Amino acid sequence: MTAAKAPGVVLTSASAAQAAVSLVFFGLAAIGPELRIDYDMSLFALGAVLGAGVLGSGLALVGAGILVDRVGSRRAILAGTALGAVGLVIAAFAPTTSTLFAAIALSGVGSAVVPIAGAGALFAAYPPAGRGWALGVRQMSVPLGGTIAALAYPALHALGGSELTLLVSAAAVAVTGLGFALVVPGEPRASTERIARPFRAILTGLGMRRLLGVAACYVVVLSALLAYVVPSVRAAGHSELTASAAFFAVNVAAMVARIAWGKVADRHGGSRRVRTLVEVGVVALVGAVAFTLALHGPALLVIVAAFAFASGALGWNALVYVSAGERVDSALAARSVAVAATVVFVLGGLVTPVLGALADVAGWDALWLTTAAIAGLGALLAAGLPASRVPRRIAASEG
């Protein structure tokens, strides 16, 4: 048996691997206008490319959960990391938009093991009263990747175009994935075969379908903000510097919000999860309206409004995942997280180009006001969620 690592070591390595994956999947939007020029893309095509990695991961998440159960986290992470890095290398030399899309999607398929293995490891390492915070820190690494991309990608693109940008990203995925694999258990998780129809059991878990509806609403808002904050700021007549600052502010806000909301949701032994999910949606709604108005104002107002918008729109992921894991039998927690993440990733990948088409046809104000309405719908759905069962610590053998 592999000796258990300290919770902090597990959290750090899981977060680093997630941040590297997120460089491309959530940070490529930092050079969205440049990519449109490089590949002569419409907003619809740009949205498809920006959502390709998320879509690829979404399609593979359930399979990744099964793979982790069958062969163990270490082998699954090594295999997935190799595929993820190779996909980015292929993307670096992609001659066409369609090849770029396919290569980034392939990288997403491989990288799907990172969030699943990370969630399982953190559920095993932390007690219920600390899971919201731990998952929040891990989820913070997603916008951390975006923040690093906001700072590094424009410079990398200026030095060597998308080729150098994607090659550097591939190296980051390979190195951090290997580091993560070294600290997770090498043995397969405890079998879930004793549970008949596990996915049916997940979907019929306490409030699970409504929770997935909440996640579906919130990921539309998240996808819109990440993909189109830069193009919309530029289209409103603001400078490239203002657009970059707004993108940076969005990712910083997401890092702060995911830890803060997770800490709030952990209060009273984790019983505050539902109320916190409602509050996140309300903040996103107000933020979307504020951002719509701010686009027509001075640059500083745009940046502040983007920060406020992201504090709700990008702050909910960890809350959904930890809630999904606690609404089912403990042996199904990792797969339940995989199901929730599948809804988030697949819908996020599919809706991004549609949102771009909406902006093309109806304008940016229409896009952002639509996201405000969807955030409000998500908050209403969250308000009707039943409280999850009493959180239980998952045995380390299941991590």
How would you explain this protein's 3D organization?
By secondary structure, the protein is an all-alpha fold. The chain contains 16 helices and no strands.
How do you describe this structure in short?
By secondary structure, the protein is mostly helical.
Helix-strand category: mainly alpha
For the record, what is the CATH homologous superfamily label?
A: MFS general substrate transporter like domains
Quote the beta fraction: under 5%
How would a crystallographer describe the biggest sheet? none
Low-confidence stretches: 390-399
Descriptive terms for the model:
399 residues, mainly alpha, Growth Hormone, Chain: A, 80% helix, 0% strand, globular
Task: Write the SSE topology.
Blueprint: H1 7-25, H2 32-39, H3 43-71, H4 73-92, H5 97-111, H6 113-125, H7 128-181, H8 198-203, H9 208-235, H10 240-265, H11 267-270, H12 273-294, H13 299-313, H14 317-326, H15 333-362, H16 364-383
Helix pairs in contact: 1-6, 1-7, 3-4, 3-5, 3-6, 3-15, 4-5, 4-7, 6-7, 6-15, 7-10, 7-14, 9-10, 9-13, 9-14, 9-15, 9-16, 10-13, 12-13, 12-16, 14-15, 15-16
